[in-house]
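Appendix B.2, paired examples.
Example (i):
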Amino acid sequence: MHLCFSITAHGFGHGAISTSIIARLMQFHPEIKITIVTLLPKSYLASRLSGAFTHVKLGHDFGMIMHSANVVDVPNSRDAYQQLLENWAQYVSEEMNVLQAFKPDWVISNISPITLDAAQQLNIRTASVAPFNWAQIYERYCLDKKYAHTETLYRKMLAVYRKVEYTYKPQPSVPFTGVKEIDIASINNQPTDHIEDLIRYLPKGTNRVALVALGGLPFDLDIKHWPTIPGLHWLLNQPGKVLRDDMSQINELKFSFLQLVGSCDLIITKPGYGTYCEIAAIAQNKKIRVLSLARQDWPETPYLNSFLASRVPFLEIHESALKGQALTHIITQLNGLDYPKTEICEDGAMQLITHLLSNGAA
């Protein structure tokens, strides 16, 4: 069997979901051929996958144009989607050429409507896996009666998503009406604890680690006035900035992101499927605590926050709190919270694989 995975390059959360599935396929079904169509860098894929795969650098699925890691640029997103609509047929043709060359048995999209349309036109069986689809996000931000093309594109995307044979919804997810969704458990790679090795790389006296993980898009932080907390070392991604002795650049450490998540005591993040579910996977260790930036406009946020707050000590904060004494006070408040009762994290990736291989054999 040959499976083709199409992965959006809008951040790394979608990559985390798809590579978790692919990693389990490589482990338990090494005979299955894997092709990955995405604009995500091959280095990212290789860091999460141990088996062989073919990488095709292609993708017309951009999600949303962002002002920052947390703020959607609505006007430019609407314009970009208008261009997508105007070039839809050309883009679908380009992806049809790729699929015809590789001849997969299935296309599993996360969550490109272009790739799905291309596969459907070639009568290749399709599945999707994501906690939402771009039609839902487009409806929230861009659908506007003042712009006739927005309704046209919205309906076009809906039609493609509703033709998908299996729509897998890993929890937590945003419900999508009009299709029979297949609910599965959360999907994530398992973080591993390397705290002893990590501390050897950090200044003497470090006994706790705080990871600032705000996604794959730039997020400028005013770290000059961040609190100095005895024994706590900050891991950040702030290129070009001179850091204090109690701070390190993430990309200068010889540890993967999953190893850092598994090793840290505190993580400052934002609503995002991949990181949230990776944190949930290690909740049983009763170590990690979470501060998450408020993102009230994003449709996923209430589902994600409810999911994570039921598993780890969790506080939602505003970006304005990421400074000085305000951050110190919030960390003290977070440390005073009790750990919730442990909830078992089932393996949604294996649930998907079992269902697909049991019901989708040619």
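Example (ii):
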Amino acid sequence: MTALFEYLLRVGDDRLVLGHRLSEWCGHGPVLEEDIALANLALDLLGQATHCLKLAGKVEDKERDEDALAYLRDAIDFRNVNLVELPNGDFGRTIVRQFLFDAWSVLLLEKLQSASHAELAGIAAKAHKEARYHIRHSAEWVIRLGDGTEESHRRAQTALDDLWSYTGELFVGDEVERSLADSGVPNPAMLEPAWREVVSDVVRRATLTLPANGYMHSGGRQGRHTEHLGHLLSEMQILARSHPGAKW
């Protein structure tokens, strides 16, 4: 297994799993406009995941396309961070999770545009344009909820407190990133100061309180996931696994 294949799985799986989570809001959004917005975010993430997993299959060269990688792997083989697989909860929790991810994603994709691998750089360039919209959208909602009613403030703060311990994994690197450093893949730890600056500013404007650092969950990059991913995959993969090889 090459480092590039492993890295593409990480980038693709983050977006595939989070996109599926957002798709669960379809028809359940708080207002029609936001229902459509969440569906569009999910489609953007699914598109990004498709490109990454397609390239991963090409790099692996074992005749596994993006569909096989998405639908025919078990949870232990997924490389997404645990943050993106957590249940949606209420709208405030979904938005806070999205914002924490978006603030990191836009920084990562900006760096990956300079990758020496032309296809990876091209995927990042297109995805970065979408990510810039995503962060504007989620940040505006965090501010609106945090600086809104007493109830919306409470729910946003509760979500931030609950999700904070899952953010540390975004900045943990290992041999995969180190072996690709000369190819333009950034050290995850180098993204944290800029991420924290963006998050701190939005949290302050939302009149929320930034949680103190403490224990941080990790393991998703190595296939150690919460129980929630298995349930998500059973729903996402059931059609492809029930009718292997079927074409529509």
